[in-house]
Amino acid sequence: MVRYPAVAGQFYPASPDDLKMMLDSMCEPAPKVKAKAVVVPHAGYVYSGRVAGATYSRVEIPDINVLLGPNHTGLGKRVSVFPSGIWVTPFGEVTVDEEIAGSLCGRPPYEPDVNAHIYEHSLEVQLPFLQYCSGFSEKLKIVPVVFSFISYEECERAGEILADVLSAREDSLIVISSDFSHYVSQEKAQEMDRLAIDAILNLDPYELYTRVVTYNISMCGVVPATVGLVAARILGATAAELVMYRTSGDVTGNYREVVSYGGIIIY
Fold it and tell me: Count of CB atoms within 10 A of residue 85's CB?
């Protein structure tokens, strides 16, 4: 199966030269850590690319990258794993790790499903960063998973399964794709996002899920973030660091209605 780009030329440049030039400006040389997981945004690069670039620049990009994102389209299964094949970007092809994808697919709530991924942007926009920051490694592989809204108990189960599947894979990274608040004032976004970000920095998946639901925080990736936190903790994560926080207002100058982005390393 081949998954072609759905948002190239919209969220990021479709030309490989233009894309590389943009990433050159967003990804800077920095000391790298071996991370269990990262939280990175998925908006258009002009808005959130600096946050994503600063975060990816700080971590070692391993061979195996499990991509967890929200399902914005509503298509497909509730927890949809792209089971096999390749994903195409302007930089070339990235192979899906069939072994890990297959191990997930055999255990509910994970199910094999392609339809949820056809038009979904939340994982696609991560691939050029992974390719670029890995030095365009030919060994780079992905396991794409998108989530509809599920209960905390299902998130916990999904995280435990993911940790079990990755327990023997030291060369893996969990990439959690999420923006934070949507279409609120800058002041409101900062207030609400602080609640969610503090829960992530405390490595507390239950508190994250509960705060987002209780305070109606418009964090689109709360489910993948909860699943990723559960898995990262089981895999031995002991700390987290906020690398950068910005909003669309920092680009547009409109602080009355913003979308916010945070980059976090979990290690």
Answer: 15
